[in-house]
Amino acid sequence: MTSPSGPSRRQVLAVAAAAAAAPLIAATPARATGAHHPRTWDLTLLGTSDTHGNVYNWDYYRDAEYDDSKQNDIGVAKLATLINQIRAERRGKATLVLDAGDTIQGTPLATFYAKQEPITSTGEKHPMARAMNIIDYDAVTLGNHEFNYGLPLLDLWIRQLGFPALAANAVNARTGKPAFTPYVIKKVSLGFAAPTLRVGILGLTNPGVAIWDRGNVEGKLRFDDMIATAAKYVPIMRQRGADIILISAHGGDSGTSSYGPELPNENPVALIAEQVPGIDAILFGHAHNEVVQRFVTNKQTGRQVLLSEPSKWGQRLTRMDFNLAREHGRWAITRSSATMLNTNTVVEDPKVLAAVRAQHKKTVAYVNQVVARATVEMSTVESRYKDTPILDFINHVQAETVTTALAGTQYADLPVLSQASPFSRTAVFPAGDVKIRDVAGLYVFDNTLEAVVLTGAEVRAYLEYSAKYFVTLAPGAPVDPEQISDPSVPDYNYDALSGVDYDIDIAKPVGQRITRLVLAGTDTPVADDAQFVVAVNNYRRSGGGNFPGIVKTQVYNEQQEIRQLLIDWAQAKGTIDPADFFQPNWRLVREGVPVF
């Protein structure tokens, strides 16, 4: 990342000299049967995405090897083994390795080297730079979570990489010039007597950064539409000699956005393939889905564009295979396909493990520090559909922090509400010692605390919007807690509020579900013109989830990380006792009858 004044000399040179300086990758040609068929060659693209700070196959929240119900494994060390195996099997044939972003956030390992011992202070190499440099990627695209820790840390991480970091649609807000390397053109050798293949690789990041990390990028970076940016750069790359065009995009393929229509589309990958001619394949991420192989027909050319998304956290590796031939003096892809490899089939690469071992051990030691003792076990298992003590713990700390900060201000006499989401379905505070990893498992995102003023009418609208999380169930219909939520709404976009008491009637249609809304501990209905301070995380306040009424000027914003506030509160108290904070204030009903 450059300073706001413009791209660095390194980044300018990276664009200008990409074709000349890119390493050669040898390939062995394959001959088609029959003299009348042209000679063909092949190219393989290996793709990763959304690794989110996972290097080891390790669950820092459980302090154990990672496991889930589908026996998935995770981590860059596992990816490295698969990539090395394929490189060895191909015996020098053309093989490129790309990543589609969201790399430096998501685990206590990544957080430790961004917050506890930030690489910007220590000068230490980031664990994800260490791991990815051993794999020797050809390029990485910046994901939206790359911006979570601010531009200085992102800039340093990019400089620690041994390969380009791409983001064509991230633009310097002052100069209008690219803030990062937009693309590279790599020369690929296809063997004896074969002309060199020039592979153009375009990187596109997610425009939602402008909302989700507004505090880090506002006034510094602009995030342009991914479709328009592809339409701009693909012809440029062709003019500069690219024989084929690959895109590494941090955006899903659903065509929808989580934040509404005010910014460019969050998940436009299929639309890019459909609307922009000249693209051969797109590796994509962001949605955390496993899309093995999807073909989208370009409306202008009629050609099919290959798309693939390799799940999340290093669980999968995309493999795209292309057959190429010379047609009328030019390279053409005659066949393309994609498969998906599962990292649970291999062991971790020892070189990657060794490179990050000391940082991994330091992180494990940190998250196993005891912060307090819990009087009883508290779990999030039921937090999506019941008011639970563990979610009230978050709301209590947030409300208390904001109340203290606003003492003596014009907002001091307003009731303080608080918002929390069930980020994890498995987080537990055990009875007895509660460790940092337990708190981190409850609050898995690096959100900061803010507060705004809402009217009673806005609070009701907010709760109505949140209540769309639940499916509609008629009175008397069977209730399965595992099927009670709409699968199109992620858990992190369901909010429970403390400070008011309310019923959510899931027998009623969306928009008409808040049937009781009263001041906490009373039977007094909340008046439309009443005013409340609402403690809220920065993701939600900046527009994440597209909740109504919440995007407004903050009355509190001290850039305090919520996870750390929870840890600090627990350490100061020494004891986590639901009697200190649990106030059951919301419930699911059907025609007034509680569901649970």
UniProtKB/TrEMBL annotation:
The keyword Disulfide bond does not apply. InterPro entries: 5'-Nucleotdase_C (IPR008334), 5'-Nucleotdase_C_sf (IPR036907), 5'-Nucleotdase_CS (IPR006146), 5_nucleotidase/apyrase (IPR006179), Calcineurin-like_PHP (IPR004843), CpdB_N (IPR041827), Metallo-depent_PP-like (IPR029052), TAT_signal (IPR006311). Residues 44-289 form the Calcineurin-like phosphoesterase domain. Residues 370-548 form the 5'-Nucleotidase C-terminal domain. It catalyses: a ribonucleoside 3'-phosphate + H2O = a ribonucleoside + phosphate; a nucleoside 2',3'-cyclic phosphate + H2O = a nucleoside 3'-phosphate + H(+). PANTHER family: 2',3'-CYCLIC-NUCLEOTIDE 2'-PHOSPHODIESTERASE_3'-NUCLEOTIDASE, 5'-NUCLEOTIDASE-RELATED. This is Bifunctional metallophosphatase/5'-nucleotidase. It comes from Micromonospora musae.
